[in-house]
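User: Show me sequence and structure for the first protein, then do the same for the second.

Assistant: Starting with the first protein.
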Amino acid sequence: MAMKTCSVCEEEQWEDLVDDEGICESCRKNFAIPRQSPALRPLTPCRRCGGRVIVRCRAIRERGASGGDYVHAYIAPLAATFARATRETLFRKRTVEQNKPDLAQPAGVFEAYICRACGLTEIYTRDPETIPIGPEYATELIEVPSGETPFR
């Protein structure tokens, strides 16, 4: 099997561990790098200044730390919410939800578009229909009455 170099860590990896974007599995997880996907923003100039160079940030990432005596730093995608963590029980091998979020399962990942000229930033949400609704996710649905328009 051939070797490939990861474009992030620049380490040689087995070919099957580096994806078509040239990123190894470890770097994709450690740096919370999402896979390539279609852009959410229309290909138009900046609405503030008319600038034509836009930076696409496929996932706004946040830093955090967890643990008690031994702190573990992590990077996670900024999202509307996260799925609840699950674990398998020893008895009957059932899957049960835990009382904490699973940072590896974001729902409604935020994607940003930044104008290089003026800095205007637009934020879009990927797959909004997958965002779970409920107090345990800190989300709720708000229905807009019919007849209302987005224009004042």
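Switching to the second protein now.
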Amino acid sequence: MRASYLTRTADWLLLFAIIAAVHASALFLVSPAHGVEPGEAAEISLGGKLYDNHWLVSGKQPPEDPNPLYPPEVKTTPANTWRCVSCHG
């Protein structure tokens, strides 16, 4: 009697594992991340990329002239004087 109980328990555990695996894969297939507009996390990420180097994100050419408000004693390329991160860290 004890052996049949263990067998039934093992069968139920196996069945539970199979159901859990199918359920997890189904959740992945119907997750709302597919085909949905980017949310707040994507906007924050884009903001960070723009802050670091806006012309790489926009696909434009970097500025050729230095930013007139950039401190002249700091030596860098003219394009880097327009990057937010170069002044604000």
